[in-house]
Specification:
alpha/beta; Rossmann fold; two-stranded antiparallel sheet; 7 helices; 13 strands
Length: 243
């Protein structure tokens, strides 16, 4: 039986020679592969017609992490701490979110992926959590810690799809972001929170698999609960089921 084909969104990077490349961190692809999926990279700069031609060939989409979404996408002004903005990546991913929902395509969002999905459906972000959320935890742990450092606990809503996947109502997670969901899009349902009230996960009710988390489970694959998240995603994809 063919493995489900999972599209991974990419980041535009420049190598030392100055040439532009499309990249994705290795743990994303490894996590998809180990869960039984076949990862493929979705390049930027594709036209809307090409994106529409690509989507039916994919069994699911992983919206990966990365730099910040342009604040104008959710009605805000430029912010000095918003960095790495790539308007073309925003365009590509927002179109893929909206199209995946229209076509009932399974998707999983991680970190920026959660933020992007919320924006695509009409939500907003904290442009900088430390500045805009009173009493916030330290969510940006890039400095001084490895990417698998367990920074804080997350409480998961009992009875949610996420709770059923993780088999627990409280998990420890890493935290590598300075932005987060502020006003949640009306179509989404928050299913996990940090101690400071920040939304750490949401689901799209009624969708075959529409889920996003603010932490980085691809960096925590030594923990069975984080492996189960990718396994549940892959198992929801059409290519994983016998025809």
């Amino acid at each position: 039986m063919p493995k489900p084909l999972i599209g991974l969104t990419t980041t535009r990077s420049r190598i030392s020679s100055g040439r532009s490349t499309y990249t994705v961190n290795e743990p994303y692809a490894k996590s998809i592969s180990c869960a039984g999926g076949l990862p493929v990279l979705i390049p930027l700069d594709l036209s809307q017609d090409d994106l529409d031609g690509l989507l039916p060939r994919l069994d699911g989409i992983l919206f990966t992490g990365g730099y910040d979404v342009d604040p104008w996408r959710y009605g805000n002004q430029p912010h000095p701490k918003a960095k790495g903005i790539d308007s073309d990546r925003d365009r590509v991913e927002i179109h893929l979110v909206q199209s995946a929902i229209e076509e009932g395509k399974p998707f999983l969002g991680i970190c920026r992926g959660l933020q992007l999905i919320n924006i695509a459906l009409g939500g907003t972000l904290y442009e900088d959590i430390e500045e805009q959320l009173p009493g916030a935890l330290l969510h940006d742990n890039h400095r001084g810690h490895s990417r698998d450092y367990l920074a804080h606990n997350v409480k998961v809503e009992p009875g949610s799809s996420l709770m059923q996947i993780l088999s627990d109502i409280e998990v420890q997670v890493n935290s590598l972001h300075h932005q987060g969901a502020n006003r949640l899009a009306q179509a989404l349902h928050a299913t996990a929170f940090a101690q400071d009230g920040l939304i750490e996960a949401f689901e799209l009710p009624g969708h075959p698999f529409g889920l996003a988390v603010q932490w980085h489970p691809e960096e925590l694959q030594e923990h069975s609960a984080m492996r189960m998240l990718f396994q549940a995603f892959i198992q929801s994809c059409p290519g994983s089921k016998p025809k």
